[in-house]
Amino acid sequence: MARPAHPEAAAAPPARRRAAGRGEWEPAGTAPVARIAVDVPLAHLDRPFDYRVPAHLDDVAAPGVRVRVRFAGRLVDGFLLDRVEESDHTGRLAWVEKVVSPEPVLTAEVAALCRAVADRYAGVFADVVRLAVPPRHARAEAAAAEPAVPPPPAPAPDGTGWTAYPRGAAFLTALAAGRAAHAVWQALPGESWTDRLAEAAVATAAAGRGALLVVPDQRDVDALHAACAAHLPPESVVALTAELGPAERYRRWLRVLRGTARVVVGTRSAAFAPLADLGLLAVWDDGDDSHAEPRAPYPQVRDVLVLRAHAAGAALLVAGHARTAEAQLLVESGWANEIVADRATLRAAMPRVGALEDSAGAIARDPDARVARIPAAGFAAARAALAAGRPVLVQVPRAGYVPWLACGRCRESARCRHCAGPLALPSGRGDEGAAASPYCRWCGRVESSFRCGGCGGRALRASVTGSRRTAEELGRAFPGVPVRQSGGGAEVVARIDPGPGIVVATPGAEPAADGGYGAALLLDGWALLSRPDLRVAEETLRRWLGAAALVVPHGRGGRVVVVADASVPVVQALVRWDPAGHAAAELAAREEVGFPPAVRMAAVEGGPAAVAEILDAGLPAGAEVLGPVEIDPVASDEGPRERALVRVPRTEGRALAAALAAAQAGRSARKAADPVRVRMDPLQIE
Questions:
Q1: Contact predicate 287/538, CB 8 Å
Q2: SS3 186
Q3: Rounded CA gap, 284 and 287, in Å?
Q4: If one looks up domain 599-680 in CATH, what number appears?
Q5: Domain boundaries, the chain
Q6: pLDDT higher than threshold 60 for residue 358
Q7: Residue 440 marked ligand-binding
Q8: 599-680 has the same fold as 157-345
Q9: Any binding-site annotation on 114?
Q10: Could you give the 3-state DSSP secondary structure of residue 570?
Q11: 410 versus 516: which is more confidently predicted?
Q12: Is it true that domain 157-345 has CATH number 3.40.630.30?
């Protein structure tokens, strides 16, 4: 049955005759069989089921609508995927009990995307649809559809900021022509990336197609939405985020579904927005962990957009100041072109970057470094920026006051005598006397008489200093200069006014400064680089570049000081401002050791017997199992847990996901009590 024209949501459902009882219901005259995706997230039921469409629901039972059906003796929700003439099922079919609303909320394109995402991540269709389609809000749905906005005139590619990049104007021309260009864009330091993405959206809209722009957080959504609304009719741009209330979120989502809005700006879940005739899919800062869905099946925005661009024949733009190994793979495979500025343009735009050793010996030899862990060169850069009337940005990896303490004698981590948890000095716990008493970060007990279990020492020292303590120390070091915090327990500031001042921010919470920062101090590099994580270097460079990009060019006195060992490759990449070179080296290193994205990998976590059952269920030929190893339980009353890593060549990734999904389906059918979590290409491998 062909999908009908969009229903008038303001109109009441058409009158329909209801029979006295189900036994007297008659099937619809044409296409009486409905394929229904029931909202039952069990792996062994991850397939459509056939139901009969009664004649009195024939007019409203269209593909994409929400329905209610009987499943295993109870009424459950579902989505009508298709109407067909006959069923392959030989038994008697149950009836579609109710069409919840005539609004076709699950489009065929989004349904296919949900299936593709579930298959890629060894997940269940019902779980992905929950991410894609927001809960219904009847009052918002009852509002009449607004008229669509006509497409804007095409921008002149030579008149935009994309001309700073050799391939930038060509990319914009391709969008205006409706071509499916794929690109990885490295934004220059100081670049107005929101304006560049807005220009790309305008070019796409001028071709009569839709643009979908995904960013990490609400602050980025607000900035990008404002930029798009300045270039396009405001009613044609819609912002979709989790911060919205249920009614407002659903109202905006319906504007996209009904074709009123042609440009969507949003966070993670907006990747599934039902935008028709897609022309551009873009993600900003794809390495940000906000782009990774914490709910099963744990998809990553970049991968979802790649799948969607391929299926829809749309353009794709992976953008940011940094570059992930996954984005580098898109370039090296030839699937995407890179959009980068030449070295001369880059050198003119970047601040001067210097690295200073952050070892204990270097700190001890530098008396200035004892104040807020900032060496003399860092203080000089800050003083010069303040004297020039510009603000200074100080990036601190950890929040709090002193989030980690060590023994003052042997430097071993200070531990709680009750549970062996790490000791810290609390942040904001009343008066100064209370703040002087360390407490356990695990059990919360106050430790009033510390004694080191290793050497017996009773003195404590700060192992890691947090953003709040750093702000206090800088306030004393620069009397009369306003110091404010962003993130790390304090309110995240979106933008600061020009003028001298100091901003202490945790990574990702750095506010933009009108006119740019005069200097940036990136502290405690060791705290970022010492984490046992596969992506630690990539993530550290991403955080550093995000802060350094806010500093004015070196020609205007811009300085960046990173407190880290200058011989470390990631520090050298920052000094040279070479995210592409670092991404290429990262990808080569992962190819050598066999880690994503050079291979497809799955993390299988659960009880020892359950993990063994999954691994024994039949993996693809050539699959290599690492482990299993014991991991910490999620809950205190949980038994032992293990994790195994399974890796295969990229060409076998689909087979691995299918094998793991089949193993999960088998356990689900047997009603296995011990759950197993499967993550494909996990974001963190510690």
A1: yes
A2: strand
A3: 9
A4: 3.30.70
A5: 1-104, 157-345, 349-589, 599-680
A6: no
A7: yes
A8: no
A9: no
A10: helix
A11: 516
A12: no
